[in-house]
Amino acid sequence: MTQRIIEITSPTFLPEQQLDPPVDFAALFGNDNPLALEIGCGIGDFIVQLAAQQPQRNFLAIDIYNKGCYKTCRRIDTTGLTNVRVMRIEARFLLDRYLTMDSLDAVYINCPDPWPKKRHRQRRLVNREFLKTLLYYLRPGGELFFCTDFADYAEQIAPQLLSLTEYQSRLPQLPGQLPEDYPRSKYMRRFLEQGQPICFLHCSKRESCTSGPHLLAPVSPGFRTHWSTLQHG
Ligand SMILES: C[S@@+](CC[C@H](N)C(=O)[O-])C[C@H]1O[C@@H](n2cnc3c(N)ncnc32)[C@H](O)[C@@H]1O
Question: Three-class SS of residue 106?
């Protein structure tokens, strides 16, 4: 069954067809505050908390889920936040097409689809290649935040992060625990209330790491990247 596409008319929403790559985010926000990206914003309950905590940063929240983008925009509009924009777009496609080298101050990935079955693990968004790709877009010193309710996902990512010397861990141990002041999405709260742990990874791109084509991994024709070439609302 195909789901009905909800038209999103919110001023917070950036329809992809109205953008010329690369996007000039300073012009879009009307200031040149640092830009942070949330990948897979779901219904937006994490980004509204984070953007309210950090008014000095601009945020781009993306998801491929139309209803999620719609709900995220509604939340942002209700709270009156002006430092967030929402796009319905696939993560790798966004990076490759619309963002430039060193343009991101931070990347947040919370509870990405876990693909728990062994034969589906290659569908996971975050892997060594994706971590390397992010390095190109993060500014030196820029941060990566990742959390998951699947310990197995965090255990897969932690050694990959540590093996990429351009990253520096910001925790004594990877994976670590969710910090007190890290906003919780409804999805995360549900797990925590059931007494289930959420694994947390936090690292930054070393200040000494200069970006350049050597960090630009080609966008793999990975699962869901094909989504960007389909007709969508
Ligand atoms: C399990 S949900 C978690 C949502 C949210 N981060 C939270 O904590 O409530 C994962 C979200 O990531 C989105 N997603 C999955 N793959 C994506 C991709 N390649 N690019 C952008 N969004 C993606 C899904 O549509 C879904 O909304």
Answer: strand
